[in-house]
Write a structure and sequence with these properties.
Blueprint: H1 3-12, H2 16-29, H3 33-41, H4 44-51, H5 55-58, H6 61-70, H7 88-97, H8 99-105, E1 110-121, E2 124-134, E3 139-143, H9 149-170
Antiparallel strand pairs: 1-2, 2-3
């Protein structure tokens, strides 16, 4: 990354996490100095933090920004060598089969605790596809693998119950 981009980031970004965000995005997408400046002026960092999780409601304020940066919108799972068409179960099996590579892709700060972790909510049984532990944030991270949009919508409707149950189990 060029020195002029570093200077823009150092001059315009308020804290280390924001600087790290713009450095990573510049490297990943090959932003020019002008594009980088545009993203900073449009507050891409703040928009990313606001839009990607439910952490504003569930994570303590002192680690919220760090937690949001620990979770990316995109992951590359080419190492799984799955075809274009595959089921959620096939994806899960492939991830577990190459768990070390998967954890490195997730950022290296995660520990694998298990798959198909059982939760009981209002006398109903649910299973979390993968359960991880983030070592720096010292918190559980549930990974739900979804292949179709309607599956995502159903899962999002159940999410508040999952959170309250997990908090009760670990509180």
């Amino acid at each position: 990354m060029s020195w002029s981009k570093n200077l823009v980031i150092m001059a315009r970004c308020k804290d280390d996490l924001e600087r790290e965000f713009y450095i990573r995005m510049t490297k990943k997408f090959g932003w020019t100095k002008g594009v980088l400046t545009h993203h900073i002026e449009n507050q891409s960092y703040e928009k990313t933090l606001r839009g990607q999780t439910n952490f504003d409601k569930t994570v303590p304020e002192n680690i919220r920004a760090q937690a949001k940066l620990a979770v990316r919108d995109e992951y590359t799972f080419d190492f799984l060598e799955l075809g274009e068409e595959h089921s959620e179960r096939e994806l899960e099996r492939a991830l577990i089969g190459k768990i070390e590579h998967f954890l490195r892709e997730m950022g290296g700060a995660f520990a694998f605790l298990g798959s198909q972790y059982r939760l009981e909510v209002s006398d109903k049984e649910y299973f979390i596809d993968l359960l991880l532990y983030h070592r720096r944030l010292k918190c559980l991270v549930a990974v739900e693998l979804k292949y179709r949009l309607d599956d995502v919508v159903g899962w999002l409707e159940r999410l508040p119950r999952y959170n309250s149950t997990a908090e009760a189990d670990n509180g």
